[in-house]
User: Fold this.
Amino acid sequence: GEIAAALQTLKKAYRVDDRNPEVLGNLGSLYVQGRDYNRALPLLEQAYRANRSSPSIATNYAIALRAAGQY
Assistant:
């Protein structure tokens, strides 16, 4: 479906630029939606460190931390 297509697109974008906070945040967010917190956390942490002013990155990082029992 649409989520699988988005995941594939973001994985490609990640391979091109693995430091882009928007790519990291969006990819991490998709992993959060799929409850794959082990994959989401490192991506969202890196995105948050690169762009602390993004409410969506901060929110998704907090959700992943809480769900993984780290917050």
